[in-house]
């Protein structure tokens, strides 16, 4: 999921078979994982911060600095383990009912990363009682409600924000809501008008604006325009895993599998990019590569569960559908995910799995939700026709 203005910003297995226990390398020289080199531009930075925090374990300000850095690294790398490190930095205050506001904000963000949206909203509600004119908190409330499909609550948060915040901040909260409620064209116009202001005043938001503009173009069936915008976003921020994932998914949907593999080659730390690469490899008949990528992806899902978390539902559903040939499981996973979050990709995951599983009834609540909110996407009409044809 995206959070707008406030988010800025392995094993090489020889077989597709999954081991019953943890993978044990054959030698000390075997490469288990390659982390992005950009994460280590300041190799001693985190070690220094950790030492300072260990020396002053009750220093909440230092704990928040460490947690924010780990959150940033998690977003940059696509590696959820960094969120666990951020949690650990805040351990002394984590279970407090009323921790300091900075901890509340970070705790809400970490709950969100774990898809525990209700706890995230509860923390943001506490934060807003203390700081009722916190623009970032209101944007996050709007975003979290939108992700869950609670569009009225999302709009209410936008309205509260509009009472005191600058227009650009309000647009960051409102535009994603417009895109999913039948007003994609209006969202596109507003984003285009805001882009020069963002370039001059909030350059870190430019990749996000390009991404949302690409969502608008996709919703309106303008695939070429969507690709152009994603390319522009990647020029502005070539390290954005969200942009890379969005571009990989666009190429995959267009059947440009060889381009997916080329794009993904150096970006497999992100589960979404890895999933696209595994599907592309299978489609092109590259069986060893497809088996390697599938095993790596399944291993990551297992590791996430071992930490007590859940893999992103739409990723796991698409893996079951396109890599494991199990449409019934894919539909079960997609529906469980859709009950929790209802972004466009989550909705598509249910419909695609329902088509494959030939289960029209399972798709009916999803189709009703789309119709009620007039959400736009070319795939909706295509998948609806396939379901009706059954």
What labels would you give this structure?
390 residues; Serine Threonine Protein Phosphatase 5, Tetratricopeptide repeat; globular; 21 helices; mainly alpha; single chain; 69% helix; disordered N terminus
Secondary structure layout:
Layout: H1 45-55, H2 60-77, H3 81-89, H4 91-94, H5 101-113, H6 117-130, H7 135-147, H8 151-162, H9 167-179, H10 184-201, H11 206-219, H12 223-236, H13 241-253, H14 257-264, H15 271-283, H16 287-306, H17 313-322, H18 327-340, H19 344-357, H20 360-373, H21 378-389
Helix pairs in contact: 1-2, 2-3, 2-5, 5-6, 6-7, 7-8, 7-9, 8-9, 9-10, 10-11, 11-12, 12-13, 13-14, 13-15, 14-15, 15-16, 15-17, 17-18, 17-19, 18-19, 19-20, 19-21, 20-21
Could you characterize the architecture of this molecule?
By secondary structure, the chain is mainly alpha-helical. Among the domains are: 43-131, Tetratricopeptide repeat domain (Serine Threonine Protein Phosphatase 5, Tetratricopeptide repeat), CATH 1.25.40; 152-234; 271-303; 324-390, no CATH class. The chain is built from 21 helices and no strands. It has helices at 45-55, 60-77, 81-89, 91-94, 101-113, 117-130, 135-147, 151-162, 167-179, 184-201, 206-219, 223-236, 241-253, 257-264, 271-283, 287-306, 313-322, 327-340, 344-357, 360-373, 378-389. Helix 15 (271-283) packs parallel to helix 17 (313-322). The longest helix has 20 residues, at 287-306. The relative contact order is 0.08. The model is unreliable at 1-41 (pLDDT under 50).
């Amino acid at each position: 999921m995206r959070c707008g203005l406030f988010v800025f910003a392995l094993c090489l297995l020889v077989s597709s078979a999954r081991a019953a226990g943890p993978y044990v390398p054959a030698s000390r020289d075997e490469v288990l994982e390659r982390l992005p080199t950009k994460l280590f531009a300041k190799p001693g930075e985190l070690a220094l911060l950790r030492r300072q925090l260990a020396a002053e374990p009750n220093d909440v300000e230092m704990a928040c600095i460490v947690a924010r850095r780990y959150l940033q690294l998690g977003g940059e790398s696509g590696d959820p383990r960094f969120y666990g490190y951020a949690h650990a930095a805040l351990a002394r205050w984590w279970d407090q009912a009323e921790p300091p506001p900075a901890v509340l904000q970070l705790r809400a963000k970490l709950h969100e990363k774990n898809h525990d949206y209700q706890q995230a909203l509860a923390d943001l509600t506490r934060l807003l009682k203390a700081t009722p004119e916190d623009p970032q908190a209101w944007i996050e409330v709007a975003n979290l409600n939108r992700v869950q499909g609670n569009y009225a609550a999302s709009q209410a948060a936008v309205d509260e924000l509009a009472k005191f915040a600058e227009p650009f901040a309000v647009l960051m909260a409102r535009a994603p809501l417009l895109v999913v409620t039948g007003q994609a064209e209006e969202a596109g116009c507003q984003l285009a008008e805001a882009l020069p202001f963002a370039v001059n005043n909030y350059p870190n938001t430019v990749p996000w604006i390009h991404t949302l503009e690409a969502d608008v173009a996709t919703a309106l069936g303008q695939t070429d325009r969507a690709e152009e915008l994603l390319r522009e976003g990647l020029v502005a921020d070539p390290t954005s895993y969200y942009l890379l994932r969005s571009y990989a998914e666009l190429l995959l949907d267009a059947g440009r599998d060889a381009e997916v593999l080329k794009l993904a080659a150096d970006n497999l730390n992100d589960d979404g990019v890895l999933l696209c690469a595994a599907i592309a490899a299978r489609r092109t008949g590259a069986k060893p590569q497809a088996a390697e990528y599938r095993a790596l992806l399944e291993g990551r899902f297992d590791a996430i569960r071992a930490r007590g978390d859940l893999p992103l539902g739409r990723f796991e559903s698409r893996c079951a559908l396109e890599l494991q040939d199990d449409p019934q499981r894919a539909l079960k996973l997609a529906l469980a995910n859709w009950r929790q979050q209802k972004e466009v990709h989550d909705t598509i995951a249910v419909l695609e799995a329902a088509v494959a599983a030939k289960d029209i009834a399972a798709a009916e609540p999803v189709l009703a939700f789309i119709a009620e909110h007039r959400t736009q996407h070319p795939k909706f009409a295509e998948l609806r026709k396939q379901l009706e044809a059954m």
